[in-house]
Amino acid sequence: MSRGNNKGNKEALLAAAKTCLLEKGFDRTSVRDIATTAGVSTAAIGYHYGSREKLMFQALFAVLDEWGEKSGRALVPADEPGADPVARYVRRWDEQIAQALEHPDMFLASLELFMQARRQPDLLPQLADGMRQGRSGTAATMLSIPEDEVSDEAARTLGMVQMALLSGVVVQALADPEHAPTGAEVLAGIRALAGLGT
Questions:
Q1: What domains are defined for the chain?
Q2: pLDDT band at 19 (very low <50, low <70, confident <90, very high)
Q3: Assign residue 39 a region: left if phi > 0, alpha if psi is -120 to 50, beta otherwise?
Q4: How far apart, in whole angstroms, are the C-alpha atoms of residue 88 and residue 71?
Q5: How far is Cα of residue 117 from the mean position of the Cα atoms in its chain?
Q6: pTM
Q7: Which of 5, 58, 61, 95 has its CA 20 to 30 A from that of 193?
Q8: How many CA atoms, within 13 angstroms, populate the side-chain half-sphere of residue 128?
Q9: Predicted confidence (pLDDT) per residue in 44-65, tens digit
């Protein structure tokens, strides 16, 4: 087998694992499912990744990265000089909720990664690092500044709260899509919570 085919098989296996993960979930995806989807032998999984679990964990992190990119694109502010920041925030929420409803499998895979990391403690450092990056990236987007300019305080406050709100709102939207929250409702809720502290 040529080196090019080996590389192609490795990439095909990762793509197949992501497909199976999104369609069947982590626990219901078998070695045969992945190999059949990739069009390679089951032995190729051990050769390239060592085990089904290691391949599936890579697939989970890859899906999480893709979800982060998709939701991050929804947060990128439009090039609207002088745009009302409140209206922009509401629009960002509407766009993110729409992204989650359009790609529910990607968000659910991120929840599955958390569940698997609780069962496999060696995954927790990677998950924690991803969360730290997510908080920093979210804060950067909300503040419209480069990520390397985000302070630790902004990441641990603004980034953390926005990520927590997003996860909770998306769960509610996916549980009851016909009555999914709107950006305006999210903003009204945030204002109501802030009012409790005054």
A1: 1-50 (1.10.10.60), 57-196 (1.10.357)
A2: very high
A3: left
A4: 15
A5: 15
A6: 0.75
A7: 95
A8: 6
A9: 999 999 999 889 888 888 887 7
